[in-house]
Amino acid sequence: MLPKPTKNWTPSHWASWKPFGIGEQYPNNYWEVFRAIWENRDHLPYAWDILNEGVCDGCALGTTGMKDWTTEGIHVCHVRLRLLRMNTMPEFSPYLLTSITEIKRKKSAELREMGRLPCPMIRKRGEKGFRRISWDEALAIISDRIPISQPDKLGVYLTSRGTVNETYYAAQKAVRALGTNNIDNAARICHSPSTAGLKSALGVAATTCSYKDWIGTDLLVFIGSNVANNQPVTVKYLHWAKKAGTKIVVINTYREPGMERYWVPSIPESALFGTRFAEDFFLVNLGGDMAFLNGTLKQMIEHDWLDRSFIDNYTTTFNEVKTSLDSQSWAELERISGASREDMYAFAQMVGEAKKAVFVWSMGITQHECGEDNVRSIINLALSKGFVGREGCGLMPIRGHSGVEGGAEMGCYATVFPGGKSITAENAAKLSQQWGFDVPTSPGLTAAEMIDAAYNRQLDVLFSVGGNFLEVLPQPDYVEEALKRVPLRVHIDIVCSSQMLVEPADTVILLPATTRYEIPGGVTETSTERRVIFSPEIPGNRIKEARPEWEVFLEIARRVKPDLADKLQFETTEAIRDEIAKVIPIYAGIQHLKEAGDQFQYGGNHLCFGWNFPTPDGKAHFSVLSPSEKEVPEGYFFLTTRWGKQFNSMVQERKDSITGARRDAVLISRDDAKKLELKEGDGVLLKNDLGELKGRVYIAPMKPGNLQVHWPEVNVLLDKNKRSPEVDIPDYNALVRLEKS
């Protein structure tokens, strides 16, 4: 049993003795409540019902209404409150898009504030804007265009924005009925390296533990992850973890203020005096995580801080890893990581002394050219102590979007079938038998490859469900040119986005979608901890012509393939869940989810429980990893991306309420600023061979030699050709020069 949190107030954990942290920089969550009330004042009862009955469409924490399965109390955060208006706002007038000359000048936030997409609309090449059309006309144009092309020239991308399991499943089935595996979703861009690393090492492809394991474990480690910003409800878990005696450690290039201390609004003690979270920060270079973790493991081996019994009986390849580490010098590991041998010793001692530990990571680990091996370096460290498959232990690639975990598991992926099965002739044959039509046997185009194909005029039809390629991918000018070259683009969304306004090569069609709360029969999402949760339909304001995306894809497929019409028909979302349960065995139980509060956690509380690993040999696999050193030319800095007050690429405020940094901030260490004779607020220019970006100096507790800049603004400096080798995600980091402007 894990230790229970003490209920007594603990002054030693307080962030400040000043009541309510007066004068400190942190989010005013109470103001966010009043802001949400004012913003949704025209539909307050509906907004309340969404919060009280729906499953959160923000991060992948997973709630039922405002409750979860980890701690008691109300769970609602500023991320969810900011997204609330997208569900309640009325439609805008179609007249607004009849000429887009002025609209194109609007920022993305201003486009969202116009309101919901009202109806199907079309724009042809040479026309100054969009005109209204019927659903029948829109679907006829699309279904007439697809057959005159080739299946491999069709691309479909779904974002994770509120997207649900039923939509993912129906969309990928429809696309495969059309003869291609060219379907992808946001899960790839975020955590596909995690999936690849976990699958190869442990035989599973998802978080191995539960959020409950954070509270009372001996050691909770965050690597390249800032949950205070991206999954803010989890700060409540961190508070109770501290109260249960858990030691919290962060490995990052920046000493994130929100991971150091936070005022948790729903806990009186923390709301008054705040809570100090991380007891230790280990600052490393951008891309230095693997070297730091290798050095940590090397220290653990030298001091025999290992679980030898677990290693000998339940793992393979440890001796090869030890041999590899023996050949990696301390000087090399220090140089690449940017951390000292003493730092690695200190962290190794913490890991060695812990009897239980949970490792959490995010895109600071995955979005690198070496993302897959970054993940494997974390797994290696966890395996050295058997920190998997038991209470208080686990490996958690934490998700930032509510629908993303189920995306790949539903098969809405260019490189796997439903259930995460690889695309092979054998698996295609089995799926063909289940569905009653031939399933393609070749892997499809990933999201990044779709844009490349579009640029090379090898894509005839591109569907984008939500999201915005112009904002999420490197080199936006290249992306825009690629979009301009697609003969037919179909954008399905609830609001207007800048990518919709890109000039058509021939035709652009806009289709209005429903939100998850509007879908008849209710839907499900899968949270970070593998919890499949039912979200009911909630009566309220409706956009008359909006339709669920799952219906749209299946109708298009039926029109293109009328001979398969009976095999591409679901009367209700309940029927979709029935089929999911049959096609994806790990989701057995989803067919029974029918009411608010219904849920189950596939795989149980812990995957690999009892150290049973579903690998071919039944053992966990260590990975031999050799970190590579990046040459940094004189005058250059490592540059990485960060989020501020935003959800995905949706910027919500110009100032980050946690750090105080504005959108143009260039986070730089005090040492580097002094060396360059820069002071707070000075204008600077970041440059490399791809582009340049103006900003202002923001002195922060950074690792010297490293900079951080807000995403997506920084995309102009990122190289579209830098991608991870196994799963093909962009590297969201760069080398840049910094000049005073």
Automatic annotation (TrEMBL):
GO CC annotations, alphabetized: membrane
Gene3D superfamilies membership: 2.40.40.20, 3.40.50.740, Dimethylsulfoxide Reductase, domain 2 (3.40.228.10)
Domain Molybdopterin oxidoreductase span(s) in chain numbering: 116-558
Iron recorded as keyword: yes
Keyword Transport (UniProt): no
PANTHER family: PROTEIN YDEP, RESPIRATORY NITRATE REDUCTASE
NCBIfam families per the UniProt record, alphabetical: Fdhalpha-like
Protein name: FdhF/YdeP family oxidoreductase
Source species: Limnofasciculus baicalensis BBK-W-15
